[in-house]
Write a structure and sequence with these properties.
Blueprint lengths: L1 H28 L3 H17 L6 H14 L2 H17 L3 H5 L1
Helix pairs in contact: 2-3, 2-4, 3-4
Length: 97
């Protein structure tokens, strides 16, 4: 009887340990860098909407980051902003790439 209750206790602990490992894995996948990069991308997008100038050097870190970590919409927005930065610097051939 004691062994059955111990087996149930260990089975419950086993379930919780799998859950803990899964939560630990998920927390390691998401870092705080995405939030800060997304905030920076939103600020560049607001500059674009306000028709304010920004430079290619401002956009390039976002392009490299969101190519690996972003959604397709994030990637499209970064390339659009990169094209707008090239256009503002009167580099039309680079803006078309």
């Amino acid at each position: 009887m004691v062994f059955r209750s111990l087996n149930r206790t260990f089975a419950g602990m086993k379930r919780y340990s799998y859950l803990f490992i899964f939560i630990l894995f998920l927390s390691s996948c998401f870092d705080g860098k995405y939030d800060s990069m997304r905030t920076g991308l939103d600020s560049l997008n607001m500059l674009n909407k306000a028709d304010r100038a920004f430079f290619v050097e401002d956009v390039e870190p976002f392009v490299t980051y969101f190519n690996d970590h972003g959604t397709p919409n994030d990637q499209m927005l970064t390339y659009y902003l990169l094209g707008r930065a090239y256009h503002e610097q009167h580099e039309a051939p680079m803006a078309l790439k």
